[in-house]
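Let us practice reading a record.
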Amino acid sequence: MYKLEFFSEIEDDLNALDDSVYDEVVSYFEKLKKEPFAYSKPLYNQGNLYLKGYRKVYLANATYRIIIRINNGIAYVVQIVAVGKREEKEVYIDAFSRIQKNA
């Protein structure tokens, strides 16, 4: 089983969600603890947003994404980087910014 670690901004991301989307996100958090590779797809660089090595989870009719990083090292960890709208690459921009800030 994987342990979840959350970037500090995730609380703000979750507070911005509608109740139905929030419930779906929390449901995916539980799924990611068990099989993160099964519920996510690889991310690639998007223009100047270098996200190779990270993964995305589709939810809410493909309008929202969860951006994660899976660590299979000594500890099995899924880092939750960002949760937000896919529209205009919003969630990808947030994820890239957070990754840069925490590097």
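A brief commentary: The chain has one domain: 3-102.
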